[in-house]
Design goal:
about 35% helix, two-stranded parallel ribbon, about 5% strand, mainly alpha, two-stranded antiparallel sheet
């Protein structure tokens, strides 16, 4: 866990001086267990398009953990069979298989299968409903306005959201299969990403739909237009389905 330790306390960055804010990279069930003694706890989170999150994870791991990932010459090597894995012996790529679902308590990590397993039926809406606020990284600008609106931070909303410029929302767009960021994966690697993150994809788009509904409520209550800013001309809200990815000579990534 990391409490705000800058010259300005984290709680003071918002108009919540009587709140204790905990920022943690822990599975939600762990955080909930640690905060049982609290009379009231509110949980918030951001969701990110799974392929984009994984590419970011890959960049971070190869840069910050060369002793573990240094032998991985490309992302394709990450999911090689155990005996040919490029990772340091004994290391499991847990962050690359339904990691968001794992972190919000939707499954448990199976080390032997290198997979996120769900003992009960996977319920994406129930997982999303655990949070009082869910932002979307691809729409960070609008998400912050929704955060201020959700928790009644009128000062911040008025300052940053009431008089918005036309250019601000263009910084973030709904993710698409053909986005340049995704094209950094090879077709084989992209297939791995989709197959290993089906739950995360379901979770993300469930959160995305809820986000759009919440923004519509905010728009009606504040008379500030946000929905039209989520999408540039020609875009429309949609769910991304797993692409058909085939290798050379029509074979799939398993060589069949």
């Amino acid at each position: 866990a990391a409490y705000g330790n800058t010259t300005l306390p984290l709680a003071s960055r918002f108009d919540f001086p009587h709140c204790e804010i905990l920022s943690a990279i822990w599975p939600l069930p762990t955080v909930q267990a640690k905060l049982k003694y609290k009379k009231e706890s509110v949980f918030v989170t951001f969701m990110r398009d799974p392929p984009s999150r994984i590419m970011s994870q890959w960049r971070s791991d190869t840069h910050n953990l060369p002793e573990v990932f240094g032998s991985c010459k490309s992302f394709d090597y990450l999911f090689a069979k155990a005996e040919r894995s490029c990772l340091k012996k004994g290391t499991q790529p847990v962050q690359y298989s339904d990691f968001a679902t794992l972190m919000v308590g939707g499954c448990k990590w199976s080390g032997d299968k290198r997979a996120c397993t769900a003992p009960l039926q996977f319920d994406a809406p129930a997982l999303v409903d655990q949070f009082a606020f869910v932002g979307i990284t691809e729409h960070f600008d609008v998400s912050m306005c929704l955060f201020f609106f959700t928790f009644g931070d009128e000062g911040k909303f008025k300052k940053y959201c009431k008089h918005r410029t036309a250019a601000a929302p263009l910084a973030n767009r709904a993710p698409k299969v053909a986005d340049p960021f995704r094209s950094m994966f090879s077709p084989r690697a992209l297939s791995y990403v989709w197959r290993a993150n089906r739950k995360d994809s379901d979770l993300y788009w469930t959160a995305y739909r809820q986000f759009v509904r919440s923004v519509q409520v905010m728009e009606a209550a504040t008379n500030v237009h946000f929905i039209s800013r989520l999408f540039t001309k020609g875009d429309e809200y949609h769910s991304v389905e797993e692409p058909t990815v085939r290798g050379k000579q029509g074979r799939n990534d398993d060589g069949k």
